[in-house]
Design goal:
Layout lengths: L7 H15 L6 H8 L13 H16 L1 H7 L5 H13 L2 H14 L3 H22 L6 H17 L12 H12 L16
Helix pairs in contact: 1-2, 1-3, 1-6, 3-4, 4-5, 5-7, 6-7, 7-8, 8-9
């Protein structure tokens, strides 16, 4: 009986983990093989080269951040709760948040990744526009609120400021309440703020 090959998905997952923690330059076949505890020979049974792996990693990230999220929030009726859960699913957990931030960094240097990121962000902004449009009718305000919600979710990762006696969570909750046009502290079935 032969030795089982390392599954294709394991290479992709390890690539995403390495991308998240060390950036795209660290995503190397040798590095991934070592992390998986295997030889690099099995890699080439699934991928023609490193670029094919990077493309597969981007495909998985895009699917998880768009299709999977939209599927998970589809049955939520409250538009504000839908926004909150979609944000929580993509931009507050360690795994997808780290990947998202690493891809944003990578996109600064790679036009093809920039286009992929734009496509994902357009889906995210589309959801925000649709949901905010349920309680706001001015197209300019819908766009502004959508941008603010997205910037709150992404920018929060980079801000190190103190909040003059308030916790970061308190300030984010208040900012979310303003953007989503709801009373501060109003509990949503999805919970939290657009993260």
């Amino acid at each position: 009986m032969g030795v089982a090959r390392t599954p294709r998905q394991a290479w992709i997952e390890q690539g995403l983990q390495t991308l998240s923690t060390n950036g795209v330059d660290a995503v190397r076949v040798e590095v991934l093989a070592k992390a998986l505890g295997v030889t690099k020979g099995g890699f080439y049974g699934y991928f023609a080269d490193r670029n094919a792996l990077l493309e597969a990693m981007l495909d998985q990230w895009e699917r998880e951040c768009t299709d999977d999220v939209l599927e998970r929030v589809a049955n939520i009726e409250d538009p504000r709760a839908k926004v909150v859960l979609a944000g929580r699913l993509t931009l507050s957990g360690d795994r997808l948040l780290g990947i998202d931030l690493a891809i944003r960094d990578w996109a600064r240097r790679d036009p093809a990744v920039t286009e992929r990121l734009r496509r994902v962000d357009d889906v995210r902004m589309g959801l925000l526009r649709d949901m905010i449009g349920t309680f706001c009718s001015d197209p300019d305000e819908i766009e502004a609120r959508s941008l603010l919600a997205f910037c709150l979710a992404i920018g929060n990762q980079f801000l190190a400021a103190d909040h003059q006696g308030r916790t970061r969570e308190e300030v984010r909750a208040r900012a979310s309440a303003i953007v989503l046009n709801r009373a501060a502290g109003q509990n949503l079935s999805g919970g939290g703020t657009p993260e």
